[in-house]
Amino acid sequence: MKRILTLTLAAGLAVAGAAPAVAATATANLAVSMSILGSCTVTGGALNFGSLSSLSADVDVATTIGVNCSSGTAYSVGLNAGAGAGATYAARKMTSGATTVNYALYTDAARTTVWTEASPNMITGSGTGAAVNLNVYGRVPAQAVPGAGTYSDTVTVTVNY
Q: Is the pTM of this model over 0.70?
């Protein structure tokens, strides 16, 4: 019996010695956060008035530009007057050498509101997170036929958000 008690006591001391000694614990919080900023992207397009031999009547065409803004982001889209020398919003200029053809860009199909870079002649909206297509309505008004050539211009599309 003495022998069993000694073995039991020795086994108990061995188990007690194997346990880690924990004096105390400390905890803290880790703050996790992020900010999602409103953003927009824009996709340009092309507006082709075609091949013409006469400008005796208005020539109307339309195209679209794409805008994609994050959900809830308010935006406004403006078009500059273009790169043609002497261009204005109402009389943008496609050029071929020193020769020009006047044209205008509008926000509406009736072609009554010239599209500019200033309110109220811009298109405004609120982003949904999905791309939307905005119509651009172009018109070459009746005018004297300039010399033959390929006429072009570049208009900058700006999205303010």
A: yes
